Amino acid sequence: MESLDQIAARISAALPGATISLVANPALPAQSSLLLGHDSAVAVARFLRDDAGLRLDYCSNVTGVDWPERVIKTTVKTTQIVDGQEKEVATPREELQPGFLEAVYHLYSMALKHGPVVIRLRTADRDQQCRVPSLTAVWKSAELQEREAFDLYGIRFDGHPDLRRILMWDEFTDYPMRKDYREPDDYDYEPTPHNEVVEKAARHVATPAQPFAGA
């Protein structure tokens, strides 16, 4: 199979103006990926599926990744005059990187027996602009997995045919897989309360917790 650089070059040749960049992953197993822009994501996905040399016809996995706001520390080296001599001075810097969410797709070719090729879609932030285009129209297997990423991370997939919770109950309002998620003490909407849940809820009332008979 071609390298990601070669695949990216062929995408750019076939779809001029498509936004695509390589996201390197130095950690084992060094599985780098392609970050797609929203405007061209569906067109790029169709190219990956239909191109005769790639034929990435199977989306095996869709997952979410939460990147909270964080401070990136770097060191900038400059040449300065110190005590009349030219010296290299290292100056620490901190840069605030806004948070965002990602949807990550693993693609394989059942026809050509190769893969995976990993592609990513990134939201603008973790609050008001948590939207990416759905790729369900290209790979039907992404439908339920995009719902799971919506349910657990809060990623909204524009164009999804049936975007609703799939694991959590309808009244649940948070996203359990986000890194800043905090488990509540009071499970007002817990559908199957057990002893531990009842004990947590009991902290909000004066009477001691009673064992749940069905546990």
Could you please describe the fold and organization of this structure?
There is one protein chain. The chain has 215 residues and is an alpha/beta fold. The protein has a domain at 4-67 and 100-167: NADH:ubiquinone oxidoreductase Nqo5 subunit (Beta Polymerase, domain 2). Helices cover 19% and strands 32% of the residues. The strands form 3 sheets. It has a 5-stranded mixed sheet, covered by helices on one side. It is flat and about 75 Å long. 20% of the residues are buried.
**Class derived from helix and strand content:** alpha/beta
Rg over CA atoms:
23 Å
Query: What's the story with the biggest beta sheet?
Result: 5 strands, mixed
Tell me the overall shape.
flat
SSE arrangement:
Layout: H1 4-14, E1 20-23, E2 33-36, H2 41-50, E3 58-67, E4 70-82, E5 85-97, E6 100-109, E7 114-122, E8 131-133, H3 142-153, E9 156-158, H4 195-202
Parallel strand pairs: 2-7, 8-9
Antiparallel strand pairs: 1-2, 3-6, 4-5, 6-7
Quick rundown:
This protein is of the alpha/beta class and 215 residues long.
Question: What characteristics describe this protein?
Answer:
215 residues; Beta Polymerase, domain 2; alpha/beta; five-stranded mixed β-sheet; 4 helices; flat; 9 strands; two-stranded antiparallel ribbon
